[in-house]
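Fill-in record for Cation-transporting ATPase 13A3.
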Amino acid sequence: MLLGIPHLIFESFPKLKALRFSKCALETAEILLVIDNHGQPTLIEMETQSICLLLDLPTNVRYFNYRHTKFIWQPIQRRFVTVDELLSSSTLDELLENTYGLNESEYKIRYDIYGPNKIEVEIKSYWTLLVEEVLNLFYAFQAFSVILWLVDEYMLYAICIILLTIFSSITSLIQTRKQSEALHDLVESSKCHNVSVLRKSPKSKPDIIKIEPVDLVPGDLIVLPPANFILPCDVVLLTGQCIVNESVLTGESVPVTKTALHSGSELYDPETHKRHTLFAGTHMIQTRFYGGENVFARVVRTGFSTTKGSLVKSILFPTPVGLKFYKDSLKFVFFLFTIAVTGMAYCLYLYISRNADLKDIIVRTLDIVTIVVPPALPAAMTVGILYSQERLKKIGIFCISPPRINVCGRVKIACFDKTGTLTDDGLDMSYVIPSKDQQFLDPVTDVSTLDTNSEFVQAMATCHSLTTVDGVLCGDPLDMSVFDFTQWEMEEPGANENARYDMLAPTVVKPPKHSIEKITEPENFEVPFEIGIIRQFPFSSTLQCMSVIAKSLQKHHMVAYTKGAPEKIRGMCKPETLPHDYDVKLAEFTARGYRVIAVAYKNLSGKFSWKDAQKVKRDVIEQDLNFLGLLIMQNPLKVETAPVISTLRSANIRTVMITGDNILTAISVAYDCGMLRSHDDVFVLTASDDDVNTRFMLERTGLNRSTENVVINFDSRHHHIAVDGRTWSKLKYCYPEAVPDLLVKSTIFARFQPDQKAEVVTHLQELDYIVSMVGDGANDCGALKAAHVGVSLSPAEASVAAPFTSKIQNISCIVNLLLEGRCALVTSFAIFKYMALYSLIQFFTILILYRQHSLLGDYQFLFIDLIITTSLAVTIGRQGPPEKLCPQRPPSSLVAAKNVIPLLLQITACALFQLGAMYMLFQQSWFQPIPDDVTEPQIVSWENLVLFTVSCYQYIILASVYSKGMPYRERLRTNYLFVLSAVSLTVFVTWLLIYPCKKMAELMELIATTPDEEEKFMFRVHMLIFPTLHLLIAVSIEAFISDQQWLKRCIQCLKRKSKPKNKYKRLLQQRNTFPWLNTIST
């Protein structure tokens, strides 16, 4: 009876459907209303599974699946937990202790809980896709409209709409299917063959069995093969080493060395311990292990819980974009519906007063709804985004969330990582500064002048994570630069020796031959001068250093070498080994923009064995070190960096740097790239070491620093704050209310860890900034995901790091994104306003014709809806962005007064010109109106001719007016297809008005022109006055009223608006005195 409309409404609005059920406690609920972080509701049915006890779970486990994630009810905690959280309490020691694997009963329990290890992207059948496509309110409205037109005998128009709907549905189905197949193929391409797993058995030794990857569960102990293996899940390495290519996830093409997990009581975290974690889908190039032992790894995450699963889920369920434009568009559609109701009321009155048939009353009244609320509106609004996405793809910028392109148009602050983003990945060794007897020696630019036997040279040669792949040395660019500087050589066992490494020196480094001859006595020449790297402690962004344990064949004891951030190394060294001017020398080089690395070492006990080296904790090694010296490196700016920063500044887009590098180095780079200008002052915010009474101090630095004191004015655009990660954490703890004040004045965030980078982005968003973040996708994943516009510089088309991936390996991609974002946003606005006015123009036409006992014909409707409106709406979006960013951002609100007023003026102009044309017709002496006593509406009439042609001109005029170009789009003349369409349609409509041929007049149901009716012919010619005047008025409204500052100021005066709407603007207007500051040094 209701044709399933209530079902469609309930499926579209789950909260309404939830009203059918009664509220109850979570532990007894059968249906859950799940609302995600973005407020999107979903109704899900609870399920029950009977399993044995595990981790305090009862026998009957209650759970639900939501977006490929399983949530299990924990009765003790009285909340739902994900399956990942079941292992979240595992410490490093707990992961290391079980070396026998799971037994069959443990495995079965875990399999029941976690399910199969698979990431499946369902490829639905075309029939299923068709049903899902059709079963929504849009198609219900479309079906309602078609039925109404068929009842009203608009056969031709209804058939055309049906055919177009079928065509668009099939096109959409094919595109959806292709996307599913592409994502499915991407997932399937990284599948592996059988995996060797340890199973605990009653025997003394566990069994090694082969199982399918789909059968793996968290806790399984797997044996990694020697080489060329695609990881089927996330695993943590327990023994040996692995060389892995993670480009499929992070975009980093440099192979990464993964080392065995160290013991400890801390909780395991895949992000914190990523140097020990091998992620699903990544390519394991080869393994390294010692003493004939296998390389073992423990499964920690499977299926969609893996990092690869997160990437797939982010594509399947993209984060909704909360742009005000979309919310406002719904409000405007509601406004149109309100107008439709008013028109329906008038139509009812009109036809009832004429004693019309009930069928005519119902059909004419309902027809108003299909006119005022255009069914093509949702599709038309995506045109601009699709064109922009295609243009971005051509220049190497890929997007997994197209709606975010519109968000790019509103970016207010641009955040950048430093290394690999603003500067090159590679580092150039400038020189080294050895230290001796608490004094720095002279800088050394040629390593051959240093003693090869010195600990300093040997530290540079051994303290790295380099490896050879296919005979080529590769690894971190910093390590490569340091090792190349030493001119030493590195030897590793060949690929055929993956399964077995030498007990003492798995990786060997040795100086060039001419150096060996200098340091080796003839009688000792049989002992080669080589240093074996026994164990690596990889670089940690948290600890900001790395260490190795090494042994020279000429020595009887092992040595630990450490290198890292000078601030961190200083705390690890014995005070008596540090030069007195350590801080002064560090500040000198970092202020000049150099990357400074400190190096230290310590001799280990002669009793310290190879076995001890594999078990020793990192913190034991990284203490009581002897300082060796500093490595001074240059990280040159990318050529494109400074021009891009200049462009952003000119466009009034604030730029900030969020980096893990030294604060003074970051400041220097900021001056070099133009983020800070030469006459700007920078104040470094630091916190005291006292945890009880923490004091915060500002110290002036920068290129403009002088001996004289300055008056600090934080309201000045030339005063900036730089803060490091340690101070940030202390300030958040001591004075959380001070964070917003700090954010609006800070330009440099240095020595920030990955989670702190994400915090900065999130806090900026809370201040109403639209934030973009550009990074290399490695240590910036959290910040890139958190930002409104996250851009990962990566050669891959899709990265787990961000919604945008740029193959352009520099920050010029952000300018392209902002240009396209502004273009897409303005185009969406233009198309929306055009479609709204198109419906209202037709609404006015139909109401006036109803009043005059007339209608539009089938072919007239076809011409307006399919030829004029469709061709113009589609070609409007073809205008590309300009070459330069302008200082003003495009509007974001449709319902703001400054946008509504011009729109209302355009609507009024349309109505007045239609009424004016009718008035001119009524004034003609030869005009005979349609009699009131007609039983059927007359289509072929002068009333129809006048309103049809005038309204056609209005569609073309408004499309042209809303296609204005600069400053957010190219000039209209560059849009050749639109210009051609508009001109062709204008010529054709003029022909229909002035002198249509008889056959065309009959087809379009218009009054034909006859040669002997000169007065009527002149009337047709005079009708051209209305489109001409309308064009002038419409252009004037857009040129002198729309988007004009005077209108905005008038509205603000009328509203008596005294404060800005955005929080960050209100903060900038306040007098920042920073009462939490204790000391200011100038």
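KEY FINDING: The longest helix spans residues 812-851.
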